[in-house]
Amino acid sequence: MLKFTDIALENPKKESIFQRKKHFNEIYANFAKQKAQEQASRCSQCGIPFCQIHCPLHNNIPDWLLLTAENRLEEAFELSNATNNMPEICGRVCPQDRLCEGNCVIEQAGHGTVTIGSIEKYITDHAWEKGWIKPIKIKLERNQSVGIIGAGPAGLAAAEELRKKGYKITVYDRYDRAGGLLIYGIPNFKLDKEIVLKRTNRLTESGIDFKLNCEVGSTVSFQNLKEKHDAILIATGVYKPHTIDLNKKKASNVIPAMEFLTASNRKGLNDVVINFDNGRLNCLNKNILVIGGGDTAMDCVRTAIRQNPVSVKCLYRRDQKNMPGSQRDVFNAIEEGIEFNWLTLPTNYIGNKKVETVKALKMQLGSSDESGRRHPEQISGSEHEIKCDLVIEALGFDPENIPMMFNEPDLEVTKSGTIKIDFKSMMSKIDGVFAAGDIVRGASLVVWGIKDGRDVAANIHNYLEEKSLKFIKLPNKDVASVI
Ligand SMILES: Cc1cc2nc3c(=O)[nH]c(=O)nc-3n(C[C@H](O)[C@H](O)[C@H](O)COP(=O)(O)OP(=O)(O)OC[C@H]3O[C@@H](n4cnc5c(N)ncnc54)[C@H](O)[C@@H]3O)c2cc1C
Ligand code: SF4
Question: Within 269-399, where are the H helices?
Answer without folding.
Answer: 274-277, 295-305, 327-335
